[in-house]
């Protein structure tokens, strides 16, 4: 699970982790917006040939403890009660109960993943917040229309717009990765054909009826996980699309105002050049014109006879 975490406070990158991070100046006098990549991982280790399986789950978060705090706050360090499993649409299935617990944990962690993205988008909202009074007040209106000499506003808008683009790509990749993972898990461990080749590599029981029941439970469990993730992803993508339109509108406003301002300055400069040219022509000293013309005639006249 991959996400971007935004914060007004700078977080140094964690040691020995190849994670992307950076910051940009905000519109506040001394403010900055720090953004870092974070990932959430979950692993399972389970038996596959016991009707009462033995398994263990491990959840990891590596973005400075922000997601680990959410994991603890939601009680995701536990396996969950029977009511929570029922509400999530997850059922145990004898040998594959460890896989069912794995599905339940992943489904719960998608909520943490979505909360992390929402906090990042909330942080972007604070940087792009524009009220009606900001438009009606001339001072704040001009601040939104024109950039400073350091291009701080344009840099902030570009920074956020590009991060929103990457966020959309990463969220879609997460959806595709989950689908690929479920298909791979099904082909390797929940296929009757696979069981005939390697009995210890399958979670399916021996009887055909029990096999069909286990496969159906597997599909229902992971369908619940995928549909839950898809709903969270759709909500995030809709919000990102709206935020991209907002940033694009603000950037276009700056570009339009800047272009009009530059065109006005260029027109005034051309007017000054025209006035300077006319004044120069009319007020050029006549003696200078006469001397220049005389020198031209002398230069063009033929040489005297006998001269070399």
UniProtKB/TrEMBL annotation:
InterPro entries tied to this protein: MgTranspt_CorA/ZnTranspt_ZntB
Coiled-coil regions listed: 226-253
TM ranges: 271-291
This protein's GO CC annotations: membrane
UniProt key word Transmembrane helix: yes
GO MF term set: metal ion transmembrane transporter activity
Keyword annotations of the record: Coiled coil, Membrane, Transmembrane, Transmembrane helix
Name listed for the protein in its UniProt record: Uncharacterized protein
Organism for this UniProt entry: Parachaetomium inaequale
């Amino acid at each position: 699970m991959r996400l971007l975490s935004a914060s007004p406070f700078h977080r140094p990158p964690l040691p020995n982790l190849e994670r992307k991070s950076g910051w940009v100046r905000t519109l506040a006098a001394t403010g900055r917006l720090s953004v870092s990549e974070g990932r959430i991982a979950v692993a399972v280790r389970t038996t596959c040939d016991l009707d009462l399986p033995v398994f263990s789950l491990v959840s990891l978060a590596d973005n400075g403890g922000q997601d680990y705090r959410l994991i603890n706050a939601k009680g995701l360090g536990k396996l969950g009660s029977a009511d929570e499993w029922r509400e999530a649409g997850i059922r145990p299935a004898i040998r594959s109960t460890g896989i069912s617990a794995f599905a339940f944990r992943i489904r719960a962690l998608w909520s943490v993943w979505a909360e992390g993205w929402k906090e990042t988008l909330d942080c972007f909202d604070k940087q792009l917040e524009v009220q009606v009074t900001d438009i009606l007040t001339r001072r704040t209106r001009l601040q939104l229309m024109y950039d400073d000499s350091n291009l701080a506003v344009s840099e902030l808008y570009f920074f956020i717009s590009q991060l929103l683009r990457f966020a959309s790509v990463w969220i879609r990749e997460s959806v595709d990765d989950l689908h690929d993972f479920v298909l791979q898990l099904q082909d390797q461990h929940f296929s009757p054909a696979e069981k005939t080749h390697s009995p210890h590599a399958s979670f399916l029981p021996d009887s055909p009826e029990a096999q069909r029941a286990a496969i159906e439970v597997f599909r229902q469990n992971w369908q619940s996980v995928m549909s839950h993730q898809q709903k969270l992803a759709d909500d995030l993508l809709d919000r990102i699309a709206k935020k991209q339109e907002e940033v694009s509108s603000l950037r276009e406003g700056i570009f339009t105002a800047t272009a009009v301002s530059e065109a006005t300055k260029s027109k005034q400069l051309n007017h000054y050049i025209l006035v300077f040219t006319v004044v120069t022509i009319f007020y050029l000293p006549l003696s200078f014109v006469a001397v220049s013309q005389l020198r031209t005639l002398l230069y063009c006249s033929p040489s005297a006879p006998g001269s070399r």
